């Protein structure tokens, strides 16, 4: 009789050999020592169905087919649910991570006189500036009235995008050059939360959605109309959540975009008025 048995956590994983006792039994503690949380083992029989191994007084007893199969750990359903929740959380985290990268930002409406050094110095108040560039005419060397910046930290980028700026006495806008919809319009930071119940308060929503990103506003209409709005600092958080269902206080809510319809009359990639600079 073999003194070892092959055990794995999942059917598609490499098995590990665990020692059997003198009487041919397998201690559950031996299994748990290598696979924490396991409550038993099973194997696939000749009929392709899974068969469980009898557990008595902490010992897994020799199955009728012997120990020659590869045995798979069995975990309590509660642990399995926790494992699935962790995997779902990791999946969402990875989805968010791909958005949390700095990109080049376009600065529109720069005064003609603003230099690259002045542009850099202004935005350094928000965080480390990796790049600051004023676009100039190739022939004349004069500023075209716009430029580009890039930050070292994503949080700095968010703060800059969330407000308008006054540079050398002129109001300037900062945007991501190529937004998702291809129109040059900024992504919406607001989501529509549907299927709400009256026991869900604004504080409940703020607490729940804060796990995804910084919440700047929560609005629930009065009188109650079974929906609400949540606004994030980061518009990409809102975009990722759209289309998902979540549970708040035992109620399944559905999230969709709260972005207003685009005005087809807006012209050019930078909206009405284009990206030209001004005097000053």
Automatic annotation (TrEMBL):
Domain RRM: 103-181, 189-260
Keywords: DNA-binding, Mitochondrion, mRNA processing, mRNA splicing, Nucleus, Repeat, Repressor, RNA-binding, Transcription, Transcription regulation
GO biological process: mRNA processing; regulation of gene expression; RNA splicing
Residue span of region Disordered: 258-280
Gly residues bias: start-end ranges: 268-280
Alphabetized GO MF terms: double-stranded DNA binding; RNA binding
Localization terms from the record: Mitochondrion; Nucleus
InterPro entries with a match to the protein in the record: Nucleotide-bd_a/b_plait_sf (IPR012677), RBD_domain_sf (IPR035979), RRM_dom (IPR000504), TDP-43_N (IPR041105)
Superkingdom of origin organism: Eukaryota
A Pfam family of this chain: TDP-43_N
Keyword hit for Coiled coil: no
Main location: mitochondrion
One annotated Gene Ontology cellular component of this protein: nucleoplasm
PANTHER family: RNA-BINDING (RRM/RBD/RNP MOTIFS) FAMILY PROTEIN, TAR DNA-BINDING PROTEIN 43
Name the record gives this protein: TAR DNA-binding protein 43
């Amino acid at each position: 009789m073999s003194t070892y048995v092959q055990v794995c956590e999942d059917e598609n994983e490499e098995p590990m050999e665990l020692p059997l006792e003198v009487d041919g039994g397998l201690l559950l503690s031996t299994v748990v020592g290598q696979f924490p949380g396991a409550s038993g083992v099973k194997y696939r029989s000749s009929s392709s169905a899974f068969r469980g191994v009898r557990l008595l007084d902490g010992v897994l007893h020799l199955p009728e087919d012997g120990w020659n199969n590869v045995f798979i750990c069995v975990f309590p359903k509660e642990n399995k649910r926790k494992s699935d929740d962790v995997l779902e959380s990791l999946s969402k985290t990875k989805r968010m991570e791909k958005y949390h990268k700095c990109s080049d930002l376009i600065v529109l409406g720069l005064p003609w006189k603003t230099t690259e050094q002045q542009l850099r110095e202004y935005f350094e108040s928000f965080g480390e500036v990796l790049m600051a560039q004023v676009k100039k005419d190739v022939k004349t060397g004069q500023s075209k009235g716009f430029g580009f910046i890039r930050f070292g930290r994503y949080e700095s980028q968010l703060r800059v995008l969330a407000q308008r700026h006054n540079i050398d006495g002129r109001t300037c806008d900062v945007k991501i050059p190529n937004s998702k919809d291809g129109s040059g319009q900024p992504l919406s930071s607001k989501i529509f939360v549907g299927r709400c119940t009256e026991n869900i308060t604004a504080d409940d929503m703020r607490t729940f959605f804060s796990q995804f990103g910084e919440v700047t506003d929560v609005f629930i209409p009065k009188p109650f109309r079974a929906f609400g709005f949540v606004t994030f600092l980061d518009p990409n958080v809102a975009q990722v959540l759209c289309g998902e269902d979540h549970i708040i206080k035992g109620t399944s809510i559905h999230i969709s975009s709260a972005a207003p319809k685009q005005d087809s009359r807006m012209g050019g990639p930078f909206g009405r008025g284009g990206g030209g600079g001004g005097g000053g």
